[in-house]
Amino acid sequence: MASFPDKLDLALVKRLREVVGGRPATESELRTLADQAGGWARATEAQLRAAEQRLAKHADPTSELGDMATEIRRTETLSTELDEARSLLAGLEQRTRELRTAWLKYHADSSPRFDPAS
Predict the structure, then answer these.
(1) How many CB atoms lie within 10 A of CB 84?
(2) Integer Cα distance of 53 and 112 in angstroms
(3) Is-above-0.85 flag for pTM?
(4) What is the pLDDT of residues 17-44, one digit of tens each?
(5) Buried b vs exposed e over 28-67: b needs ≥16 C-beta within 10 Å?
(6) What is the predicted pLDDT for the residue at 67?
(7) Domain boundaries, the chain
(8) Residue 118's pLDDT is what?
């Protein structure tokens, strides 16, 4: 796993893993997690594109090898982080569908049946 720059990311990743792993979550929390995870993925993708552009600039044979190595490490780290963000988002979407289906089924099974004869 990539190292994340701040505690918000660590807390987000931890909670996403919990929910994707089967822990309960409210509808409101599912929406909040989806928003935060989507933002994390978009920000990571933008950082990765910027690192790739910097790396392309360092492709010149006169560029410093150390600068290239730094950008290569950065792109590898960001690629790993982006893969994890996308994987957790996909898992969250699946888990959200499961929880919503269970909620609908519970309410459908527990609601009184309509009887037109009464």
Answers:
(1) 19
(2) 61
(3) no
(4) 999 999 999 999 999 999 999 999 999 9
(5) eebeebeebbeebbeebbebbeebeeebeebeeeeeeeee
(6) 81
(7) 29-98
(8) 60
